[in-house]
Amino acid sequence: MGPLRCPKCGQLRVRRCHREGPVDHALSVVYVYPFLCLVCGRRFRALRWGRRYTTQPTQGREVERIAVRAPLVVSGAGARVDGEITGLSLQGCTAWTRVRLREGATVRLELLLEPAEPPVVVAAALVRSVRSDKAGIDFVGVSPDEERRIRRILTSLHHVEHDEGVPAAPPIQDGRRGVLRTPVFWLMTLLLVLATLVLTVFVPSFSRCVWGVSC
Ligand SMILES: [Zn+2]
Asked: How much distance in Å is there from the Cα of 124 to the middle of ligand 1?
């Protein structure tokens, strides 16, 4: 069983995440688990045959922040504060600000992540923690368009940070092997085997027909 790749961005930085709802719980019985891509935030399921995961306490945010330096403007309560982003994820950022932010405040952010483009606007953000002039900020309200931009920027940042000029690995979907990796395939196979067993045991004529005894 090879390492897991994100089906969306093809990166290897994926982490097993919490099961949510009855489908996740039922599938985990047949070793199909939910995973989270730490780069683009995509949640997906994958078969990890024979593997059992133990529950681990969550360590705060689920997606790690990528180191980045970009200008930032924080506005709220009629004031504007300049600063600089030092880390970015889909869910939030860490930033240095010229004026100390107030913990628990809801602010608006303008992130100048692309020099030639207008800033990425986070309409609502929560100042989660403040230590001296550094703050941890969670994005609470981001429009789908802006979220797409952050996702795209994070993916390109990740390539720069880790690949150093090496092109990204192509997504693994090579015909039959690709099909064998999908949870749906394994679930259907399991259901088919179960249905055959039930029919063989409970409907005697079916089993005779299958083995060609009387038909
Ligand atoms: Zn991804």
From this structure: 25
For residue 15, what is the enclosing H or E element? strand 14-16
Please state the separation of Cα 158 from the chain's center in Å: 14
Calculate how far, in angstroms, residue 41's C-alpha sits from the geometric centre of ligand 1. Answer: 6
Q: Please answer whether residues 74 and 109 qualify as being in contact, where contact means their C-beta atoms are separated by less than 8 angstroms.
A: yes
Give, in words, the CATH class of 66-163.
mainly beta
CB 81 within 8 A of CB 75: yes
| Percentage with pLDDT > 90 across the chain | 34
pLDDT digits (tens, 9 = 90+) for 172-184: 444 455 556 677 7
Whether 42 has a pLDDT exceeding 80, the answer reads: yes
Domain segments of the chain: what residues?
1-58, 66-163
The residue behind tokens 């038909």 is 215
CB-side neighbour CA atoms (13 Å) of 156: 7
